[in-house]
Every structure is written in structure tokens, then in C-alpha cells.
Amino acid sequence: MESIAVETTNPSHAAEPIRRLEGNVGRVIRGKREVIRLTTVCLLARGHVLLEDVPGVGKTTLAQAFARSLGLAFQRIQFTSDLLPSDIIGVSIFNQKTQTFEFVPGPLFANVVLADEINRATPKTQSALLEGMSERRVSVERMRYTLPEPFVVLATQNPLEYHGTFPLPESQLDRFLMSLSLGYPPRADEKDLLLSGGVENILESLQPVLAGEDLL
Q1: In sequence order, what are the residues at sequence separation of 6 or more whose Cβ sits closer than 8 angstroms to the Cβ of residue 146?
Q2: Cβ-contact 161, 167 below 8 angstroms
Q3: Beta bridge partners of 139
Q4: Is 112 within a domain?
Q5: Rounded Cα distance, 138 and 130, in Å
Q6: Does 151 map to a domain?
Q7: The domain that contains 97 carries what CATH number?
Q8: Distance (Å, rounded) from C-alpha 22 to C-alpha 24?
Q9: What's the number of domains the chain is made of?
Q10: What is the pLDDT of residues 140-174, one digit of tens each?
Q11: In degrees rounded to 5, what are phi and psi of residue 51?
């Protein structure tokens, strides 16, 4: 795909590429133009998004749609109480052939990361994610590793389910630029989506309309 340079000093030059990006995501996320627009703002501002909503409204699909529309690497991390920091940032493994330790990156080393049900992980694991979000690099055994750019985290949590969770304190919630809620799509949009082949088929057909590097 040919890279499209976005002139950030002149807002009018960026308007058309951004409209194409939002329109492409809107093919699969129907009836949620405001959520798409605000998520785009977060991407342009190099911020992160907290999606607070019930399961099944399209949070994962939203993250995947943005990743596909920008041609970026996507990873989904399911947060659980037994998830360790090393499970998301990676580990150093001893290579017997070279007699050295080699770093194996974890799923956090992607451009678009969906941190699903972040409040189900322990504070220690949450801190590992939040360090990467704020500093855009992680620490493993006294070594620092830089995360890829662009880098954005879309974290989710269910506002109606608190059993067995570790709520994020206010100071850590500040790491997110926005807190959004998708909600269910309007009936007409949901019907149109089903008649168009369903979410999976449309998502698979999405092609990049803007290079991720143009967001930097």
C-alpha cells in the first residue's frame, strides 16, 4: 500500500485521510460514529482508550477494525487473576547454543493492543501494562525495551461485574486519555450488518486506507 502523508500543520490536509479511516472502521462498527471519531482522536493524540461496557457490543471488533484499517499489528490479551507481568511483556530465555539470554517479546509488543477485562488482573500485572502505556517501553531484568510505534492500548472492563476484580485506582485511570462506551447498535444498523454478511466477513475484507506511520 502506498503511504499517504498527512500534513499535520494544516488540518484541512488531514481531514480526507481521517474521514477514510473513520469510514472504513464504520463499515463494521455500525451506528457508532461518535465512538469511532473519539477513538481516532485518541490515536492521533497518542493516547489510550478505556472501553467500559458489557460483553458482546463490539469492543474487540473496534480494535481489530482500526488495526486493519491502518495496516498495524494487533494483539489481544485476556486479563485473568493468574496472568503474570511476563505473560504480557515477555521473558528472557537462555539460548544453549549461544550461551546467552535472549529476550522473547510478549503480546504487548504490537501496535494496537486490546487489554480485555483489565480489572481482572492483579495490580502487579496491571502496573506492567500501565508502565508500557505511559513510557512506551518495558523493563525486563534490568533491561529496557522500546515498544513499537504507533502504540495504542484499548482496555476493557465490565462496569456491571465487580466480583473477583481489582479496580484501577484513580491515579492509574489517568493513564487513559478517554473512557468510552459502545453500547448496542441501533436495530436498523444491526439488521443491515447481518444482511451484509456479518461482522467476521466484513472485518476480514477491510483493507488499510492509511499507513500507521502517518499517525506519528
Answers
A1: 136, 137
A2: no
A3: 144
A4: yes
A5: 10
A6: yes
A7: 3.40.50.300
A8: 5
A9: 1
A10: 888 899 999 999 999 999 887 777 788 888 888 99
A11: -100, 110
